[in-house]
């Protein structure tokens, strides 16, 4: 009784730490993203041997990986396998797992074959417990018909109707391979139609997105164009307004200046960077020279003499008036521009 328990425990440990490809204890174990573990060399050879156009997948659950996973040694699992080897449990009798002369052998096992636990009437292959797992775990095998292993599988095929005889507990049931194939083709056609519809929907979404992007770009271009136009018009308007204001100020200043010298009771000297003009009794007299920063005025009221001098450097006469003054005279200054200043200085 104790030997039987030890045998079962040993077998269970060996199955837990065995590679489902080589069916031996794991060597340099690696765990792929789906959670199944294999010998590093076994899974590499398996993926290298697959059609290069196919996506790498798990041999047990058929889960696909894209891109191909990088394999790293599972250090913890390797340590457990080493501990299992040291305890000697792997040496416990396990012959009951392997097929004898009277047993149905697994068609997938290489080397020493294990006992088959089920036969698939769709695959027409017998599987051991390890190689049968994908039929339980992968949706791709959901409709496969599994029966107890039989050596007379090929004898159960009807040569007239190409049908497979499925053995049930209460008798026999005929499963039509043609019907199965037709059902598969129907499912494939539906799947293709769904994929085609999804592609069309995605193309429609992409087209709508492109149209939205183009509309946004057009709107942005129009906004930029309108903004540039508005800014250009605003600049022109400001320039025009600035010119009008300057002209208005200049005209106003000239008008104010001309108010002096527009009668026979006032005499006015107008000076700027361009010209010098003398006004009296609405008579305009152009004077030579320009840019007089300092002006000297000489008045001899009794003699009727009024003189204007340029005293910026050496004193030079600008204009002289000889007349008869009947009233007192007063000096006045009108700056031409905002910010201009003038100062009366008494002669030393």
Automatic annotation (TrEMBL):
Annotated InterPro entries: B30.2/SPRY_sf, ConA-like_dom_sf, E3_ubiq-ligase_TRIM/RNF, TRIM8/14/16/25/29/45/65_CC, Znf_RING, Znf_RING/FYVE/PHD, Znf_RING_CS
One example GO MF annotation: zinc ion binding
Gene3D superfamilies: 2.60.120.920, 4.10.830.40, Zinc/RING finger domain, C3HC4 (zinc finger) (3.30.40.10)
Pfam families: TRIM_CC, zf-C3HC4_4
Keywords: Coiled coil, Metal-binding, Zinc, Zinc-finger
Entry coiled-coil feature ranges: 165-226
Residue ranges annotated for the RING-type domain, each copy included: 19-62
PROSITE patterns: ZF_RING_1, ZF_RING_2
Entry protein name: RING-type domain-containing protein
Organism listed in the record: Poecilia mexicana
């Amino acid at each position: 009784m104790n030997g039987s328990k030890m045998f079962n425990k040993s077998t269970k440990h060996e199955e837990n730490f065995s590679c489902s490809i080589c069916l031996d204890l794991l060597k340099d174990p690696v765990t792929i993203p789906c959670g199944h573990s294999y010998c590093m060399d076994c899974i590499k050879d398996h993926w290298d041997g697959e059609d290069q156009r196919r996506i790498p997948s798990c041999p047990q659950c058929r889960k696909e990986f894209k891109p191909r996973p990088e394999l790293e040694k599972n250090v913890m699992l390797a340590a457990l396998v080493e501990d299992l080897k040291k305890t000697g449990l792997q040496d416990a009798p396990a012959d009951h797992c392997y097929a004898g002369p009277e047993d149905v052998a697994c068609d997938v096992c290489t080397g020493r074959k294990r006992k088959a636990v089920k036969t698939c009437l769709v695959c027409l292959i017998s599987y051991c417990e390890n190689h049968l797992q994908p039929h339980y775990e992968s949706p791709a095998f959901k409709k496969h018909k599994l029966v107890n292993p039989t050596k007379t599988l090929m004898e159960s095929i009807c040569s007239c109707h190409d049908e497979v005889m499925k053995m049930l507990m209460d008798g026999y049931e005929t499963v039509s391979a043609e019907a199965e194939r037709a059902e598969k083709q129907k499912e494939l056609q539906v799947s293709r139609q769904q994929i085609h519809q999804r592609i069309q929907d995605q193309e429609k979404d992409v087209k709508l997105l492109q149209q939205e992007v183009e509309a946004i770009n057009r709107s942005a271009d129009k906004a930029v164009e309108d903004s540039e136009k508005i800014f250009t018009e605003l600049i022109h308007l400001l320039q025009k307004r600035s010119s009008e204001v300057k002209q208005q100020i200049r005209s106003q200043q000239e008008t104010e200046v001309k108010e002096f010298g527009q009668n026979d009771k006032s005499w006015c000297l107008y000076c700027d960077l361009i010209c010098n003009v003398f006004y009296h009794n609405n008579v305009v007299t152009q004077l030579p020279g320009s840019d007089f920063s300092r002006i000297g005025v000489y008045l001899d009221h009794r003699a009727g003499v009024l003189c204007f001098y340029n005293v910026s450097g050496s004193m030079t006469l600008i204009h002289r008036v000889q007349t008869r003054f009947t009233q007192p005279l007063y000096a006045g200054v009108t700056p031409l521009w905002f910010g201009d200043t003038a100062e009366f200085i008494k002669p030393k």
